[in-house]
Amino acid sequence: AGMNGTAIENFVCVIFNVSFMNCTWNVGKTATEDTQYFLYWRPPKKEYVTECQNYIKDDCGRHTGCQFQNVTIEYKPTYFLVNGSKSGQNIHISDYIIVEKLTPPLNVTVNCTEASHRCSILWQPPRTSHVKKRSCFKYEIVVEIK
Which residue ranges form the domains of the chain, and what is each CATH number? Predict the structure, then answer.
């Protein structure tokens, strides 16, 4: 719904530090300076929607992003809605991307023995907002000899 060309584009949400989510978007190609966008999201397993409380704005004062705290994304679908104030019609998002920037692995330990010329490296998976299985992670180790 909404006037052609006013829907947002390139909607992306990035989760970082486990529970913070930063969503950004571009205004529609034909959106005028007085078009305003409002972001709502419904977390998984919740009946209510939450409006953004901390908008990111462009030079015209239009909302072009939002920062959320205490976010939990699980395996269930998460729904987003962007409502536009231009002509009072809803502007729906046709697709979106959620990316999580992981923290480094936790409790990394290195034990080397001179006799066997071997080292063992142990770690725990990084904290994440939604991945619970250890087998979901793949790691790469780069060894530099000094």
Answer: 9-100 (2.60.40.10), 106-136 (no CATH)
Residue 1 confidence (pLDDT) above 70: no
Tens-place pLDDT, residues 4-44? 677 888 888 888 887 888 999 998 888 888 888 888 887 76
How far apart CA 12 and CA 127 sit, in angstroms, is 21
The greatest distance separating any two alpha carbons of the chain, rounded to the nearest whole angstrom, comes to: 76
Q: DSSP H helical segments within the chain, as ranges?
A: none
What is the distance between the alpha carbons of residues 80 and 95, in angstroms, rounded to a whole number?
Answer: 9
Q: Do 19 and 71 meet the contact criterion of CB atoms below 8 Å apart? A: yes
- Is residue 48 within 8 Å of residue 41, measured between CB atoms? no
Environment class of residue 105 by beta-carbon count within 10 Å: exposed (0-12), middle (13-18) or buried (19+)? middle
How many Å apart are CA 19 and CA 127, to the nearest integer?
10
